[in-house]
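Quick illustration for those who missed Monday's session on complexes.
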Amino acid sequence: MKWTGDLAHFPYPFKGSTYRYSNNSIPMKQPYCIEVTSSYKKEMLFKRKLLSDHPERCYQSLPHSITGQWEIVEIVIDHLVSQYPQDFSIEQENNRWIFTNKILDEKKEFIFGEKNSLPCEPLFFISQHVQEDLIYMRQRDDNLYLDAGQLCFPANWSLAFNIGMKFKSIHHPIPGFKEEGLDQRILQFLMRLEAGTPWERLNWSLMAGDRLDTSLETFNQWGRLRKQVTSENAGELVHIRVEVQKLFRLPRTNSILFSIHTHLLALEQLATNIEWLQQFYEILSELPDHIVEYKGISTYKKAVLKYLEKQLQQVKTL
Amino acid sequence: MYIEPTLFVRVSSIEKITKQVKKFTLFPETGKELPRFSGGAHISTYLKIPSGLIVRQYSLVSHPDKRSNYEIAVRLSENSKGGSLHWHQGMKVGDRLQISYPKNHFSLSFKARHHVFYAAGIGITPFLSMMQDISTNRQTFELHYASKSEESCVFHSYIKKHYPNQSHFYFSDQHQRLQTTSLANHPIGTHVYFCGPEGFIEQFRTASIELGYPILSIHSERFSPPKPIVLKAFQVKIHNGITINVSKTETILEALHKHGIIAPYSCQIGRCGTCELPVLKGRVDHYDSFLSDEQKEANNCIIPCVSRAKSDKLVIEIK
Ligand code: HEM
Ligand code: FES
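Prediction with protoporphyrin IX containing FE bound:
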């Protein structure tokens, strides 16, 4: 969602002066899979509308994912309650749970582990309380499969298309991933993920516009804005899109929870930090064509570079 | 050095279940419940004794959904170097220790049509939680369990009571022998699992391979003792350039960066694999948790944020 917080807390994704695909995961300092930001209420309403208007686009699951879904309910509630005790609470009496969301003024009672005690699947239920998209990667034998997911804010991909797919097939569209053996190495890393040691990584992209719901299915609605970018309007129109992605081993099903929190920042805001402006300009100028192409920046890269140059000029003449 | 996150627990009961095996119940010290786990999972236990830290792995034998406590079963081994001896003689109710989060390197196959477990002696332990998982997800299994005698057979009455139709016992004092020939009797799509002494596992693995079981249908569990880290200084030569010294207290990655050499990295704890570099010469002392055993044995790459040199010099390639 459009960044409304303190710029110093924006998950700025760059280090160094070049960017290449690599496993940039690091162990988390604060081991929580979710974060509540100042746009919580607005995003929850939007997310719920998407979930009810477009359930097949935003929610998919395979039948054997139910135990894992309960595990996600358990970990998400645990993290909400321990991190934001003033906003969320849980009463537990054996398997009878009462979850309270004070921000939305909601109370929900259910029997943990009993599907019929909720009006929807467990993952669907809990995803209505967090800004993150939640993906369940089931470990089956020597591979990971996307066995369930709630996805409202995708960066140009389709959950309905990817459901049931293996880790490597999901990453097949990324140029060079397979050729460089990166997909195998990341899979090897994920297979060794341990409970108690969660990881996070930042993924970034540029987009024309400020839509959170940029699904592959609705490309025709938001993709055309790319053609309207000029060096004059880039500061306002173009946004850097950063996903904070978190990886947790779920010990009950020996599977993985992948949570994605999406943040958008207009380039004009990014440019207010001179170091960021300089670094981002260097990275974008040097970015290899195959990455530019994959991230969908080709049509307006020149305009953005020109905009950034102008900003840098201004800084230097000040 | 990286130390994995741990949970603090206390021993709440100790029960002698056979002449050589004791069962320990561990409950969380903080009052917060313990994580659930999956069938076949184990924990590492960290015991502080005057002569140092003892780290041992034990399978969890309690129910995977039970969060109030964990149970492990420890056999006093004849040539114990301190681990099981301390558990048996030093441990008292109320003692405090650290344990890892549950891990699973011996999980049930998802695609198996039928599961067959072969256990010898204390090797039964990982199968207890696996059998519990299978009975709830309605798959089929059999257990073949060899022991010296009925008295020394760990969890004998429990297994007989809960899995009367699936379990088969072999007591050597009654001249019953568990033989590899039974491997030939399982239907296509069966996955086999072995746990017990090294020789037992090897014998059954070899026999399964000879019978034509696909490698991915054969599962076994071995607990490897933790590797004590040897900190000595050595040299690293970049294939087309300079030679740098790596002191006792720094990592190769740190030494490279100190010399202005650009080497990628991310986690710096030997897990993400981002810093991997090719090795052209010299012997590597692997300390990472990223490379597989085969990759480590090949000795042609290194994870420089944690691993070191066995030889005095390593030649590595940096592009
Ligand atoms: C296990 C959970 C993960 C899931 C479900 C997942 C899913 C995805 C999906 C759906 C895409 C878009 C592919 C498309 O174009 O259709 C993607 C892109 C990508 N993924 Fe993952 N991923 C996971 C973990 C990781 C990890 C651990 C890495 C570590 C480096 C990674 C690196 C990437 C990269 C570099 C891209 C390209 C992004 C870009 O250039 O904007 N992924 N992933
Ligand atoms: S930096 Fe992650 S393994 Fe070395």
